[in-house]
């Protein structure tokens, strides 16, 4: 029992450098900013009381959203601007926790106002916003850090691993259930599913040549390959040696989907979630290398310079 | 505050409960339909909805859609003319990052079980026509689709088909002409 508790504590509560949290925050904020800008052309058509859904749908127990109170043009505009400001603050790490809460509340509110216009990618952005809210993502590489400990700006104070672990488990579950749902379908079993997915004209983005979608051999390979990669992302991603390769396959899968299908932000949200699997020491090394390169380049003015000090925690 | 919580045994226990509840709730939400899922959802669904974790991971599952689908509105005007209005569509490069929501809307709206979406949609098209200074008298929502045939030798797609699934007599029609 004691050993189980120790294992649990080590798995969830080990302290790690906060660099991965910082990278996750920046990448997520970029996606949220792009997502927010993408709403602009259709903001009132989708979410206003003069749009395609004039009144707020009734939610089930637990459902909530700020636009339930008012979805007139002023309220929709205010929520939109709040989301924009929240995403910008999250990007630079200013009042980071508050910014993450604002982003989460705004995203959920838009989603609840018109659930009929959102796809899985939009919902994944919302799921990530919930987890980002739990992370100490302003602990490093942020305005908050700059204001709190300017001389230690380039250090990554240690923080508990559990929010990152929670995102890792979520990613693993995502692919596990995706595979489970797919293997119940006949086209995933007979190896033709990808051919149909690539030929749906209303969802088509860049075309896939007909010799690919019409070749049973190729579509079988791509269909079963997709299932294999998703299964690997559910299970093999937990193996430290295989993880980089599994994630690389996942990146290729999602970039392929983004090329061929109008899935909006689905691929980019998934790639942001992959960041949770990057070892903090690796991310710290990347950041320091980038800082040194920038400091020697014409972009040196962008690099906050600080006096060298002993790392935090040492006498 | 979070660090203080994490540094105490009781705090870590509370976080552990939160972790277990979250993972179990997400897992239950994504289970295939079953009796155990129905029972468990009674407890976990409110939490999942409140936290925004109500994601379903069934992209293109159990099968991808096996037809292409568009929804458009056939608008009839007081002067007897007709016009077809459709949902906006963006270009391939950038448009794909905003117009996919219109595709999703068309997918849901075309389904008979979502008939509550039809009137507001038709009304929205009528208002679009009015905004151009025209006088719509009726809006008919039409779904246009064609089947995707199994891959292999032979044609890859069937013929386009259309079905008018809702007609909306525009309230106050003829007022623009009267003015």
Structure, explained:
The complex is a heterodimer of chains A (315) and B (179). With 315 residues, chain A is mainly alpha-helical. Chain A is 62% helix and 2% strand. Chain A has 15 helices and two strands. Chain A has a two-stranded antiparallel ribbon. In chain A, helix 2 crosses helix 6, helix 2 runs antiparallel to helix 14 and helix 13 runs antiparallel to helix 14. The mean pLDDT of chain A is 94. Chain B is an alpha+beta fold and 179 residues long. In chain B, 41% of the residues lie in helices and 21% in strands. In chain B, strands 2-1-3-4 form a four-stranded antiparallel β-sheet, covered by helices on one side. In chain B, strand 1 and strand 2 form a beta hairpin. In chain B, helix 2 crosses helix 3. Chain B is elongated, with a radius of gyration of 24 Å. Chain B starts with a helix and ends with a helix. The chains are: A mainly alpha (315), B alpha+beta (179). At the A-B interface, helix 1, helix 2, helix 5, helix 6 and helix 8 of A face helix 1, helix 2, helix 3, strand 1 and helix 4 of B.
Write the layout of secondary structure elements.
The complex is a heterodimer of chains A (315) and B (179).
Chain A: H1 2-13, E1 15-17, H2 19-39, H3 43-47, H4 73-92, H5 96-113, H6 120-134, H7 143-148, E2 158-160, H8 162-182, H9 186-189, H10 193-199, H11 210-213, H12 216-234, H13 243-260, H14 266-274, H15 280-295
Antiparallel strand pairs in A: 1-2
Chain B: H1 2-7, H2 9-30, H3 35-51, E1 67-77, E2 82-86, H4 100-109, H5 118-131, E3 136-147, E4 161-169, H6 175-178
Antiparallel strand pairs in B: 1-2, 1-3, 3-4
In whole angstroms, the N-to-C terminal distance of chain A is: 37 Å
Distance between the termini of chain B: 66 Å
The portion of residues forming beta strands of chain A comes to under 5%
Radius of gyration of chain A: 22 Å
Number of continuous helical runs of chain B:
6
Count the E strands of chain A: 2
The biggest chain-chain interface is: A-B, 83 and 69 residues
Sequence of secondary-structure elements of chain B: HHHEEHHEEH
**Secondary-structure element string of chain A:** HEHHHHHHEHHHHHHHH
Q: Judging from the principal axes of the Cα atoms, what is the shape of chain B?
A: elongated
Report the biggest beta sheet of chain B as strand number plus sense, adding barrel if it closes. 4 strands, antiparallel
The residue fraction in helices of chain A comes out at 55-70%
Oligomer: heterodimer
Low-confidence stretches of chain A: none
Number of strands of chain B: 4
Question: How can the largest sheet of chain A be summarized?
Answer: 2 strands, antiparallel
User: Can you list the strand order of the major beta sheet of chain B?
Assistant: 2-1-3-4
How are the strands ordered across the major sheet of chain A?
1-2
Principal-axes geometry of chain A comes out as globular
């Amino acid at each position: 029992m004691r050993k189980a508790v120790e294992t649990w504590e080590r798995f969830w509560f080990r302290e790690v450098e906060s660099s991965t949290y910082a990278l996750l925050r920046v990448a997520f904020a970029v996606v949220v900013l792009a997502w927010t800008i993408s709403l602009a052309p259709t903001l009132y058509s989708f979410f206003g009381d003069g749009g395609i859904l004039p009144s707020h749908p009734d939610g089930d127990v637990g459902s909530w959203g700020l636009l339930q109170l008012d979805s007139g043009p002023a309220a929709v505009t205010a929520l939109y601007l709040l989301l924009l400001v929240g995403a910008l603050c999250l990007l630079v790490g200013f009042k980071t926790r508050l910014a993450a809460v604002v982003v989460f509340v705004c995203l959920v509110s838009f989603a609840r106002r018109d659930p009929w216009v959102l796809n899985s990618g939009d919902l994944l952005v919302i799921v990530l916003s919930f987890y980002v809210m739990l992370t100490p993502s302003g602990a490093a590489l942020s305005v908050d850090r700059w204001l709190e400990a300017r001389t230690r700006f380039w250090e990554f104070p240690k923080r508990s691993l559990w929010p990152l672990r929670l995102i890792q488990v979520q990613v693993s579950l995502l692919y596990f259930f995706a595979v489970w749902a797919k293997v119940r379908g006949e086209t995933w079993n007979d190896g033709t599913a990808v051919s149909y997915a690539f030929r749906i004209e209303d969802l088509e983005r860049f075309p896939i040549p007909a010799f690919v979608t019409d070749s049973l051999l190729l579509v079988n390979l791509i269909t079963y390959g997709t299932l294999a990669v998703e299964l690997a992302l559910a299970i093999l991603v937990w193996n430290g040696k295989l993880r980089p390769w599994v994630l690389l396959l996942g990146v290729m899968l999602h970039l392929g989907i983004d090329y061929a299908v109008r899935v909006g932000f689905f691929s980019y949200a998934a790639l942001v979630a992959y960041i949770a699997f990057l070892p903090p020491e690796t991310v710290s090394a990347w950041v320091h290398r980038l800082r040194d390169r920038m400091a020697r380049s014409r972009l040196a003015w962008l690099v906050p310079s600080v006096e060298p000090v002993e790392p935090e925690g040492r006498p | 505050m979070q660090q203080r919580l994490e540094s105490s045994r009781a705090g870590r226990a509370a976080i552990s409960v939160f972790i277990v509840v979250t993972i179990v709730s997400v897992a239950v939400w994504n289970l295939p339909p079953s009796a155990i899922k129905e029972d468990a959802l009674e407890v976990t669904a409110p939490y999942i909805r409140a936290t925004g974790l109500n994601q379903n991971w069934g992209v293109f599952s159990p099968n991808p859609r096996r037809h292409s689908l568009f929804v458009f509105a056939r608008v009839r005007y007081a002067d007897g003319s007709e016009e077809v209005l459709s949902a906006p569509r963006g270009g391939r490069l950038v448009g794909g990052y905003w117009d996919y929501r219109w595709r999703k809307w068309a997918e849901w709206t075309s389904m008979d079980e979502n008939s509550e979406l039809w009137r507001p949609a038709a009304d929205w098209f009528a208002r679009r026509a009015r905004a151009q200074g025209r006088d719509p008298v009726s809006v008919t929502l039409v779904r246009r689709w064609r089947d995707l045939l199994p891959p292999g030798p032979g044609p890859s797609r069937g013929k386009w088909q259309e079905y008018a699934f809702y007609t909306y007599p525009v309230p106050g029609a003829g007022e623009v002409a009267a003015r």
